DNA sequence: CGGGTCATTGACGTATGTCAAAGGCCGTGG
DNA sequence: CCACGGCCTTTGACATACGTCAATGACCCG
């Protein structure tokens, strides 16, 4: 839980009571194998969950069974937060063997009632998620396969780095090529070919699940990647940009 | 302003003081012509704005100048709300001649400070927007042109109906085929061909800017449209689903 | 040992993009 | 008031990025 709270504190100010309450929130640890749904499509959401280890994807599906991944969550990310304010939810699946910490919505609700600052922090977390979603939309809607892949790799690189799970030059991404295709609106075989093309240009080297980016500038240029939307190191800018904080 | 408050009340409970404060919030009316940016790409957001008339699009762009529309806002929609909690914002453009009511972020902030219920209502509005975004992502990522168009038309139909600006069988959508292409990740000419195909199947009839849907069931089936994600008539379900409300 | 997921590669098909041209409509300026 | 230019729609011929189908081998977990 500490990891998640630290992440929250990067972007929002919380008083001591709020962080203590968060750290003490009740919940259960669960081990989930790859490919099993954590929240099934259409299921009414009753809990949020924190990713402790592994990789989980938020997804939607179309009638013929194909899936579109609409979000990738790495350790330290809280999933299903929007379900606190909206009755309909998303489906989630573990893309690799993962362990999660499940927190019932009603337990989170009492936190929100007692600590208004937590509400703002959660709202902000949802806004960042939406910002990522919008980027994915322009990525899928308007870029070709190479740029799409490059953009996604850049995004995951800076998110992993910010989560202190690696550096942008070397990190591990626990997703199969099939999963990457589902995230990019591509086929697994086309992901494979595209990956090869990137490798042949010396932009990325993938060995198993570990990603190396020897030429960050090249990859970022190809993917037209501008990390601003991820709000990196927002705390540092706090004196300049002053988002709303309740009195 | 009344229209927006009514919309908010559909989904959230606000006390009398909060609605009065919202109705009295200061702002300026602006007339915007088609194709002019309301918020330019990269511009730091300093205000939210309510659409009073017309149609405005949220968008991102890629280097070669092509655009991807990431949100369509009809009269009664409040734009740029996430910018209240997050420093980076989106770009917005009027897709048709529009009139908007611009509200400075700092004026909105004092509302949030004085009325916690408004914060929850805004958070919820952002969550619905994100939910739409996720749907668009699966739409663009995994469906062909006909299904995409059908889905978008269905979505706008129920949103227009809910805003009391028409019925799902007949409403007016002030977007050019070019704009539709930008929203769907398609070319204007392919939108044209796809529209013709839908017309020949008797699913839609578009005359100028007015859309008729003679076969709703057929169009919804083709677009695999399930309106749950738009939270229609959520107030009616309030007794069953109980999203969080501060004490 | 055996079934499943995963990566890789080839041949081939197709949905969608690109380029080009024409006409209608509308706002704008002369 | 008229003429001009620009935006919008429509259509055709052609190009291509990506999907589909298929087969192989490696690896892992049970």
Structure description:
The structure is a homodimer of 247-residue chains. The first copy, chain A, is an alpha+beta fold and 247 residues long. Chain A is 41% helix and 20% strand. The first copy, chain A, has helices spanning 2-11, 16-23, 105-114, 116-142, 145-162, 177-184, 188-200, 216-222; strands spanning 28-32, 37-39, 47-53, 56-61, 67-73, 78-79, 91-94, 98-104, 170-172, 205-207, 210-212. In chain A, strands 1-8-3-6 form a four-stranded antiparallel sheet. A four-stranded antiparallel sheet of chain A has the order 2-7-4-5. Chain A has a three-stranded antiparallel sheet with strand order 9-11-10, covered by helices on one side. In chain A, helix 3 (105-114) crosses helix 4 (116-142) and helix 5 (145-162) packs across helix 7 (188-200). The first copy, chain A, starts with a helix and ends in a 25-residue tail after the last helix. At the A-B interface, strand 4, strand 5, helix 3 and helix 4 of A face strand 4, strand 5, helix 3 and helix 4 of B. The first copy, chain A, binds a DNA duplex (30 and 30 nucleotides) through residues 34-35, 144-145, 176-178, 186-190, 192-193, 196.
């Amino acid at each position: 839980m500490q990891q998640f709270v630290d992440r929250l504190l990067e972007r929002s100010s919380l008083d001591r009571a709020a962080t203590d309450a968060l750290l003490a929130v009740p919940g259960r640890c669960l081990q989930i194998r790859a490919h099993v749904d954590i929240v099934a499509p259409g299921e009414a959401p009753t809990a949020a969950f924190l990713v402790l280890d592994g990789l989980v994807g938020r997804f939607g599906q179309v009638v013929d069974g194909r899936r579109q991944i609409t979000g990738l969550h790495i350790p330290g990310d809280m999933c299903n937060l929007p379900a606190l304010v909206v009755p309909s939810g998303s489906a989630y699946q573990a893309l690799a063997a993962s362990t999660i910490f499940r927190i019932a919505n009603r337990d989170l609700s009492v936190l929100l009632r007692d600590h208004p600052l937590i509400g703002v922090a959660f709202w902000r977390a949802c806004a960042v998620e939406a910002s990522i979603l919008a980027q994915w939309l322009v990525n899928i809607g308007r870029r070709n396969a190479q740029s799409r892949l490059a953009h996604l790799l850049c995004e995951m690189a800076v998110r992993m780095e910010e989560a202190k799970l690696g550096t942008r030059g070397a990190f591990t991404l626990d997703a199969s090529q099939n999963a990457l295709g589902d995230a990019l609106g591509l086929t697994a075989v086309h992901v494979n070919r595209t990956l090869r093309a990137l490798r042949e240009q010396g932009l990325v080297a993938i060995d198993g699940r570990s990603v190396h980016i020897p030429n960050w500038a090249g990859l970022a240029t190809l993917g037209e990647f501008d990390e601003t939307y991820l709000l990196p190191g927002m705390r540092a800018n706090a004196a300049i940009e002053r988002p709303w904080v309740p009195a």
